[in-house]
Amino acid sequence: MTALSLSACSAPAGGQDTGRIKVAMLQPPRSGLSPFSDDAFKLSRWSTAETLVNLDARGDARPALATAWTRTSERTWEFTVRDGVTFHDGSRLTAQVAAGALTRATRATPKPRILDGVELTARAEGGKVVVTTREPDPLVPHRLSSPQLAILAERAYGPDGKVDPVGTGSGPFKLVKVNGTTTATLDRHDGYWGTKAKAPGIDVSFVPDGAARAAAIRSGEAHIAEAVPVSQAALLAKETISEVPMPRTNTLYLNTAKGPFKSPGLRAAVRASIDAGQLVRGVYEGRADVASGLLGPALPWAAEGRKSLGERTAPASAKGVAITLATYSDRAELPEVASVLQQQLQGAGFAVELVVREYAHIEEDALAGKFDAFILSRATVLDSGDPVAYMQADFTCDGSFNLARLCDEDVDRAVREAAAADAGPARHAATLEAEAAILRTDAAIPMLHERVIQGDATTVLDSAKDPRERVLITVETRLK
Known about the structure:
The chain is 24% helix and 24% strand. By secondary structure, the protein is an alpha+beta fold. It has 3 domains: 1-48 and 171-237 and 458-480, Periplasmic binding protein-like II (D-Maltodextrin-Binding Protein, domain 2, 3-Layer(aba) Sandwich), CATH 3.40.190.10; 56-147, Dipeptide-binding Protein, Domain 1 (Dipeptide-binding Protein, domain 1); 245-451, Roll (Dipeptide-binding Protein, domain 3). It comes from Nonomuraea jabiensis. This is Peptide/nickel transport system substrate-binding protein.
């Protein structure tokens, strides 16, 4: 698809296009815009589907379709449903409708990712939704902020399990038309319960090619372009580029179960040999941040409260130590990162064999521990807006994504304590203790934190710059 195809949706079927916002998005719908899939994030970014809870910039839970909530027992929460909300089809939001939407999500196949490993039930009691979990879960409000648990009108949910978001959301923009994997059209919903949107509508084109998205900004075919590649950013006028820290860290995982990196001293030698600044300046053209921990600037509280690591393990001699370093080609920068890292490690004395494949062809071997070192671009904050799930998966003995094959009692204990902590400052502090425990092992060496690059025409005002990529067009977004 070229940038020129954006003109196909420059005006809605009903008439005038003045002030409508044209958006070039990275990925086309994969599941018919079902909120139970990753397509839910599109509905959220267009402000058409809403959840009971929102997350603020710090990742704390805030009211949305629920005005308040209370934890009434270890396993039970009550959410008060907002009065006066009308869906785009004219039906009303009630506790029964909200509970029904959550129940359908728990029964979906496949289950929404936010509910992996979580057993949850929802029922209506008066004007409240009562949510009960099998195990105590201090993050229930955060889970309900996931776009995959959006609340749609009852008619959105078909008997076959399919969900149709067209005309069934509650947000400031009404989804009126979807043209397969090509375009989508949204009009302002003047009956919105909150502040009326300033733009009359949104016209979306799905443009997987990064060069075409950047070209659409240069040509004026798009007002906003998602995920502009680093290689294209330099071709755009400076005033049309925004860089937003992402909760995504480029990390080197070292195999602690077998091979050279069973040795803490050799892991420390790797840590000492890496020049992350060279990677940021060279590979990312300065459009990334050197890592100071697993959690980056997208989580402001992480930098504010980061724990001291104390005295570190001294590096051992790496002279003549043979290792295999692997990564995948799906993310354009990673093969180049691997090449630069190979040179740095060789400079420290390691003999480095480099392996690069498509992710689908390398993940199985990586999880099986067939490489000594693996470079991964990893999201550190998953759907709940909380990094503990990432730490559980990647660094605990039973972790489902433990590329480092780490099994450390101190790490497991620290992660358990973080998982049990209440949301807010106590959980932040416990999470940073877990981060420090992981970093002390040198099983994972964070190198840099990535940024998402967004293109905005100079005529655009107040588009959202969201590191979690949940919000893009808000009620304030408009054209000059």
